[in-house]
Every structure is written in C-alpha cells, then in structure tokens.
Amino acid sequence: MPRPSRWSEILVAASEEFRDRGYEAATLEGIGARVGILKGSIYNYVGSKEELLLAVVEQPAKQLLAELERLQADSGHTVAVRLRELIRMQVRIFGDHHPAAFVYLQNIGRMTAPRFAEFREMDARYMAAIEALVAEGARTGEFSLASSPRTVARAVVGILDWMQHWFVPRGPEADQELADELFAFALGGLVAGGGMRGITRAFPA
Question: pTM score > 0.70 for this model?
C-alpha cells in the first residue's frame, strides 16, 4: 500500500519556514523538522529549495491575478465599488493563503531566476491594473487625486503590502470588516486628495 502524500504538510511548513527565517536562512532540514520528516524525504517532492519556494507562492499569486482579471471585466459597478472588492479580495487571499501570500510579497523582488519571470509579470500586471482603476476614477470624477494615478496606485498597494508585518487571519467576517476599514481609509484620500493638496500647498515652507 503506497504511503500517503505529505505534500500539503510540506507546503505549509515551507511557508512558515520562509516567513519566519527568510528564504536565504531557511533550510530543507528546518522544513522537514516542522513536518517530522528527514530532509531527504522532501526530495521525493521537489528538487531544490528554490523549487519549493516556487510551489509555495504559485497558488496565491495565480489566484490574485485571476480575481483581478475578473474585477477588470466588471464594468457594471462604480470604480469605488470595484476598488472595495479588490481590497476585500486581497485581504481574503492573505487569509486563505497565510502565510504563503506574504512569502510571495517578501520574495517577489528577489525572484531573478528565469522560472520566476511569470510571477514578476503577474506583479507588473497587478500594479498596472490598480493604476488603471485609479486613473478611471479620476476621469469619471469619482476620485480627486493628490498625485498622479501611478503614485496613488503605489500608495494603495503599499497599504496592502505592509499587512505582511501585522496581519493575522481572524476568519472571513472579521477579515472582510478589516478590508472595509482599509477601503474607507484609502477612499478618504482618493476622494479628498485633490482638495488636501491645495491646503498643504498653502502651508509656509
């Protein structure tokens, strides 16, 4: 009778090891210890630590892009509603794939191997989509921006990315409530940003 697969346990353990120790310091020995298996057993599933990192980040990255494409195709709601759904979606993925989603955020900038090119492209598409959403809101008059859509989009993404330092999943309802609080904070700046820019310019240098 074949042995049951330990793959799902290995992925969870790898996510925790990469999150706690960072990719460079993480070891296959440490990952194996979290599962209760030897390092050699991990090689039955992957050929290297880099390959294991790829497996950890693949699911949350692809889910994020799929959800983003769905929102981009939604033309029946206002920009503000779509932005709220985007933030809800992002927080939901953080909860569903915790801590793997944060391993992705921590490592996207250093994924230089050719195999990670797909993820760098996903990251660029994600940023471009948010920038386009912000720009659309400015064109329709929903948003009054304090800066360019490019800068504002990066500020919104920065709010979400920083969650890797403090977010702990609390369940679907509590996580959605948190997402809506973040949306309210971001929306305040998006709606009033242009007016606030005029006020700040009146301050003495």
Answer: yes
Distance between CA 76 and CA 66 in Å, rounded?
A: 18
Contact predicate 76/82, CB 8 Å? no
> pLDDT-derived band of residue 19, with 50, 70 and 90 as boundaries?
very high
Q: Determine the pLDDT at residue 166.
A: 95
| Mean pLDDT (the chain, rounded) | 87
Concatenating the DSSP letter of every residue in the chain gives -PPPP-HHHHHHHHHHHHHHH-TTT--HHHHHHHHTS-HHHHTTT-SSHHHHHHHHHHHHHHHHHHHHHHHHT--SS-HHHHHHHHHHHHHHHHHHTTTHHHHHHHHGGG--SGGGHHHHHHHHHHHHHHHHHHHHHHHHTS---SS-HHHHHHHHHHHHHGGGGT-----HHHHHHHHHHHHHHHHHHHHHHHHHHHHHHTS--
- CATH of residue 40's domain is 1.10.10.60
Q: Is residue 40 domain-shared with residue 135, that is, in the same domain?
A: no
**Domain check: are 34 and 89 in the same one?**
no
Q: How many domains does the chain have?
A: 2
Q: Name the one residue in this structure whose structure tokens are 């992925």.
A: 11
Domain match, 24 and 114 both: no
